[in-house]
Design a protein that fits this description.
alpha+beta; 6-stranded antiparallel beta sheet
Length: 152
């Protein structure tokens, strides 16, 4: 149920998530697994628009954040991405899977503790984009890697 609640919240607060066709497939404390179809995000080259990929990665990180924050007594969704960077290794010419993760999972407990005590915190989350068959589109590295610094 929490997965659907978080997706509904994203669709309400960030309407482009619906336009992207963004869905959440699985949420755990350590990762969010999400999906975005090529068709509504296609560019003039027949591949997925880079801005859509970045947006999908940011949404996946937001979903991971919301899932973890709901496990604490801190009930905020007042987040800001203060820094984001993305490398594109290969065009995505298909539907994509987006995986959001804690850049360092040990930071999760520190982040949640600091957030509960102080009402604000900072953390880095990452995301990678895979082809629709679940394989990385580049053998050496994720097609896209995003690092976001989130400030509460």
């Amino acid at each position: 149920m929490m997965l659907q609640e978080i997706l509904s919240q994203l669709e309400q607060e960030i309407p482009t998530s619906k336009v992207f066709g963004f869905t959440i497939q699985k949420l755990t404390d350590s990762e969010a697994q999400c999906f975005m179809p090529l068709e509504p995000n296609i560019n003039h080259k027949g591949t997925m628009f880079g801005g859509s990929q970045y947006g999908g990665c940011a949404l996946a990180c937001y979903a991971l954040f919301l899932h973890n924050v709901r496990a604490t007594d801190c009930r905020t969704n007042d987040i800001v991405i203060s820094h984001g960077e993305m490398d594109y290794f290969k065009p995505a010419g298909e539907d994509v899977q987006i995986e959001a993760f804690w850049e360092n999972f040990e930071d999760r407990e520190k982040f949640l503790d600091h957030l509960s005590r102080k009402g604000k915190a900072r953390v880095r989350l990452g995301a990678r984009v895979r082809g629709s068959k679940g394989l990385l589109l580049n053998n050496q590295a994720p097609t896209v890697r995003v690092l976001l610094t989130i400030i509460i």
